[in-house]
Design a protein that fits this description.
Blueprint lengths: L8 H17 L6 H16 L7 E4 H12 L27 H12 L5 H4 L3 H16 L1 H4 L2 E2 L2 E2 L4 E5 L2 E4 L3 H7 L1 H18 L4 H4 L5 H6 L3 H15 L14 E4 L14 E4 L1 H7 L6 H13 L1 H11 L5 H17 L3 E5 L2 E4 L2 H8 L2
Antiparallel strand pairs: 1-5, 2-3, 4-5, 6-7, 8-9
Helix pairs in contact: 2-3, 2-8, 2-9, 3-6, 4-6, 12-15, 14-17, 16-17
Length: 354
């Protein structure tokens, strides 16, 4: 991969304009295209760089993200909801989405209760191959069709099983990741709600977005118990003992809405609410980086039991991306209630040399 200068402001605006047109003028018969945009933007953050270089991805990498995104969707929604009939949500205007069907079939014969357990099964490779074939034939083929034309402004496909994000695209997906995620997720929720076959399943439910993209209460409880055992019954931020602890995303979920085991910490409800969607101050970052190195195996074990992604290197790269973006925007980091500090070069140096 050859480094290139970052895109100009005009080039970034052109990308956003075309992305807006894609959402407005694209044909969305299933939720696949939303999943593809989420997957590509996540992979750009985790594997790309802040320059204008191309980024080569394997279709199988994208398929892995599809399985992660749709894994929980293969379970019935609506249990215990008012005027709702529990069932698997339909995510295609025709027959059920093939990705969901493949996951349902895998789960029906698997003894695994979490995705992390499932990945160790021989049959998981077959599931991934099926999903990769669907991703290749459908969203990767049709995503860039909108307004009656094909405009390959995001990626090209130079060979079998390879997708190459075009120059400047990885940078833009990194730079505008929260916006891309919000647009894709909002349209995904709207698509599911608009499908008439889902009306009886949804009933009066108001937690559809949480079901589609959030972490289950069971997984959250497992993570909380694991963090309490690992770090002790004290708040990660203020260091004081706690009776009731909240599981907090160190790099805020609003900034990077993907659950990573190594990104979780236990916090006082007050500290958690005060920090909210802010990045944490330098003192907190230093301790988090040390913990990432020293306790990575234990965090991986907690994530494996809870069924969330376990990858300390990815968590580190996500943090480096988040703080670099904040530094470029002259952002400020949360230290404690009502106290913030500028995100200076010292933050980036810490992340470069943990």
């Amino acid at each position: 991969m050859i480094a290139r200068a970052p895109p100009s402001a005009d080039q970034q605006l052109e990308f956003l304009t075309k992305l807006q047109r894609l959402f407005a003028e694209g044909d969305f018969t299933a939720t696949y295209k939303f999943a593809l945009l989420i997957a590509l933007s996540d992979l750009a953050v985790e594997l790309g760089a802040d320059d204008g270089a191309e980024l080569s991805l394997a279709t199988r990498q994208i398929a892995e993200r599809f399985v992660q995104l749709y894994w929980r969707h293969a379970l019935p929604f609506g249990t215990g909801q008012a005027r709702a009939t529990p069932g698997v949500l339909v995510q295609n205007l025709g027959v059920q989405a093939a990705v969901l069907t493949a996951i349902e079939e895998f789960r029906s014969t698997s003894s695994s209760t979490t995705l992390q357990q499932a990945r160790r099964e021989v049959a998981y490779g077959l599931l991934l191959a099926k999903v990769a074939a669907v991703v290749s034939a459908q969203p990767l083929t049709y995503l860039q069709n909108f307004g009656g034309i094909t405009d390959p402004f995001i990626y090209e496909r130079p060979g079998r099983g390879i997708v190459v994000l075009k120059p400047n695209v990885a940078y833009c997906l990194r730079r505008f990741h929260p916006l891309v995620q919000q647009l894709a997720r909002n349209h995904w929720v709207g698509h599911v709600k608009a499908n008439r076959r889902n009306h009886g399943i949804l009933g009066d439910a108001g937690d559809l977005e949480d079901f589609l993209f959030g972490i289950s209460r069971q997984s959250l409880a497992i993570i909380g118990a694991g963090l309490r055992k690992l770090d002790g019954p004290r708040c990660f931020y203020c260091g004081q003992g706690l009776h009731e602890g909240h599981v907090d995303h160190f790099v805020p979920f609003a900034l990077y809405p993907r659950d990573l085991a190594h990104n979780f910490v236990l916090a006082h409800p007050q500290c958690n609410r005060s920090k909210s969607d802010s990045l944490a101050g330098k003192g907190h970052l230093v301790r988090w980086l040390e913990r990432l190195t020293v306790r990575s195996p234990q965090l991986s074990e907690i994530g494996a039991v809870a069924g969330v992604v376990t990858d300390g290197e990815v968590a580190h790269r996500v943090a480096a991306w988040g703080y670099a973006n904040a530094h470029a925007a002259q952002g400020r980091a949360w230290v404690k209630a009502s106290i913030y500090e500028a995100i200076d070069l010292g933050y980036l140096q810490r992340l470069a040399n943990p």
